[in-house]
């Protein structure tokens, strides 16, 4: 399966018939090789430093300081990144110019993180379900 096909899968309708994912990215987290492997245009500017922080085992500053994804500040909602089989962070973006906030889920496999940013009406559960499916597949592939 190509990396782009994972993004295409993330951007399909869920069981409710809604497409909850507006933007998605898959990034490598191996030390010294942090990079975006594939993304939609809205997440193409994720930096290696942001990837390194998201993939790190030390997320102690996230609750107080938040974390940045593609230059957008996000606040931590729930950290289950070390909880088997979840391996995910639930985040919420800072308000944009129109006052809108968006849910973000970051899932982690052995060598990659999967980032999904929701549409305005998407729930955190819809996003985490989408991320979980891709991360589960990557983990089964030992990635």
TrEMBL record:
<comment type="similarity">
    <text>Belongs to the profilin family.</text>
</comment>
<keyword id="KW-0009">Actin-binding</keyword>
<dbReference type="InterPro" id="IPR027310">
    <property type="entry name" value="Profilin_CS"/>
</dbReference>
<dbReference type="InterPro" id="IPR036140">
    <property type="entry name" value="PFN_sf"/>
</dbReference>
<protein>
    <recommendedName>
        <fullName>Profilin</fullName>
    </recommendedName>
</protein>
<dbReference type="Pfam" id="PF00235">
    <property type="entry name" value="Profilin"/>
</dbReference>
<dbReference type="InterPro" id="IPR005455">
    <property type="entry name" value="PFN_euk"/>
</dbReference>
<dbReference type="InterPro" id="IPR048278">
    <property type="entry name" value="PFN"/>
</dbReference>
